[in-house]
Design a protein that fits this description.
This is Carnitine dehydratase. With 404 residues, the chain is an alpha/beta fold. It has 17 helices and twelve strands. The strands form three sheets. It has a seven-stranded mixed beta sheet, with helices on both faces.
């Protein structure tokens, strides 16, 4: 088998929903041994949530399947008297703990950073939250769309004559996951030099503010907010033609491109009267309407061919199902699949980061609740009789069948 860069890294993963699980899946794709700690029976809350009441294979959540491949599941009751003994024993040889419970919840149960570093000074403990671990928002729910609203992203998205628009994906959670990985890999590198672990704190609000750096800088230094355009201009700070335009059979995007080149393609020289940086911004909605009237007369394919021929920055607007058949997506191998014991063959997006010597791989499906409980406890050094005792007393649970 191809070696994996993180094959010697073991992660105790207490996380649920999106932020933490996406972080640990990214580590798992690079070979890390992820022990997903779940509640007996129900497991990760995402197992019970889906879109439009649609379930893969009739019973499996697409939300859960998307973020939990390449992991093993340990079902354990964190409130059981023997839970600490088991998890502390695993932590003796673990490298990383990841959790995104509300601040203080795991610490009250005896699974905080201070608890684990007493057992293993080399442990790296990464916590994800909505708003950090103190302050006036501490008791608020830290959900993705709420963070988009609080940090200015939703207010900067959409048309000016309509409501603020959240991004059509869990953007704050996924940025949070990336920041968790960033912190973990940085801490692993530091530990190689220092021999000690550390605590990492990542929150969604800080992450989304940091990823709006240029928009925040403009607002703070000029003392005014962007005004959303009423047209399909693609960013509240940009001038025409930057935006989304209709064609006779779809939509195209046009980015930062010389206005004269676009006018040349569309064939209406009267538009050149707008070719001034100030006018292109102040009249951007008006310009968009005039450009859109022309782009509507083209098919997407014909307009793309004409614009690309003169090096205009442009692209087709595709739906998720259309993206699957995109030739570049196919060329890059970005759609793959895994076989799940209940859901069957599940199509998924492949790892995005390519490493030449230690490539990422999808080698395990998302686990069933407690599917690997017995296996993980054996690896921790427990005998069959001890495992049987824990199972009998309900401290841990295992998935005995492929049918939940």
């Amino acid at each position: 088998m191809t070696p994996k860069a993180l094959a010697d890294v073991t992660v105790l993963d207490f996380s649920h929903l999106l932020q933490g699980p996406f972080c640990t899946q990214l580590l798992a794709d690079m070979g890390a041994n992820i022990i997903k700690v779940e509640r007996p029976g129900q497991g990760d809350l995402f197992r019970t949530m889906t879109f439009n009441n649609r379930w893969v294979g009739g019973s499996e959540s697409p939300n859960f399947l998307a973020w939990n491949r390449n992991k093993r599941s340990l079902a354990i009751d964190l409130k059981a008297p023997e839970a600490k003994e088991i998890l502390y024993k695993i932590a003796e040889k673990a490298d990383v703990v990841v959790q995104n419970f509300r601040p203080g919840v795991l610490a009250k149960l005896g699974f905080g950073y201070d608890d684990f570093r007493k057992i293993n000074p080399r442990i790296i403990y990464c916590s994800g939250s909505g708003y950090g671990e103190s302050g006036p928002y501490l008791s608020r729910p830290g959900q993705d769309m709420l963070i988009q609203g609080l940090t200015g992203l939703a207010a900067a998205t959409g048309r000016g004559d309509g409501p603020p628009v959240p991004v059509g994906s869990g953007f704050a959670d996924q940025i949070g996951a990336m920041n968790m990985v960033y912190g973990i890999l940085t801490s692993l590198y530091w530990r190689e030099r220092s021999g000690v672990g550390q605590e990492i704190k990542v929150d969604l609000m800080s992450g989304l503010l940091a990823h709006q750096g240029q928009e925040m800088l403009m607002a703070m230094n000029f003392g005014e907010d962007f005004k959303r355009p009423n047209s399909g201009i693609g960013h509240p700070g940009m001038e025409a033609p930057f935006g989304v335009y209709p064609t006779s059979d779809g939509w195209v995007t046009i980015a930062m491109s010389p206005f004269t080149k676009l006018v040349g393609v569309l064939g209406d020289d009267t538009l050149l009267t707008y070719n001034d940086p100030t006018l292109l911004f102040e009249k951007r909605d008006e310009i968009w309407e005039k450009l859109a009237a022309l782009t509507r007369t083209w098919t997407t394919a014909a307009l793309m061919e004409a614009m690309l021929a003169v090096d205009i920055w442009c692209g087709e607007v595709k739906t998720h199902t259309q993206v699957v058949d995109d030739p570049q997506v196919k060329h890059m191998g970005m759609i793959t699949s895994y076989d799940h014991p209940v859901a069957g063959t599940v199509k998924v997006v492949a790892p995005a980061v390519k490493l030449s010597a230690t490539p990422a791989a999808v080698e395990r499906p998302a686990p069933l609740v407690g599917q690997h409980t017995r296996e993980i406890l054996r690896e921790a050094g427990y005998s069959e009789d001890e495992v049987a005792g824990y199972l009998q007393r309900g401290t841990v649970a295992e998935q005995k069948s492929a049918n939940p």
